[in-house]
What we know:
Elements: H1 3-22, H2 30-41, H3 53-68, H4 74-77, E1 80-84, E2 87-94, H5 97-108, E3 115-122
Parallel strand pairs: 2-3
Antiparallel strand pairs: 1-2
Amino acid sequence: MTFIARGLVLASAGLISLSVAAADPAAPTTTDKARKTTTENRGVTATDQPNNQRDVDLAAAVRSAIVDDASLSTAAKNVTLVAASGHVTLRGTVASAEEKAQVERVAAGVAGVTEVTNDITVKAR
């Protein structure tokens, strides 16, 4: 094999190994970093709802109490809620501070709720 041919073979091998290294799934990418930052800063979302029966039942009871309150708007009735070990987290947007407080009062009045975190925002007018 000539010197030039050897160089091409070695260069080809080097390029192949570089392309394999670049495709390493364990290597973090910009997208992975952005996703991690978004996940860390997002707070509690509906996907955080535990799947054990006690927490599912508590979430259903809180949702039912909120939906049954005729004084609340559709937006208030559709806030995101997560129930975990008696702790209920509320997120979403409502029209007024009074409605925000009412959703919290309704959630806190459900049997089994020991704590409410009210992360509801009031829509700017």
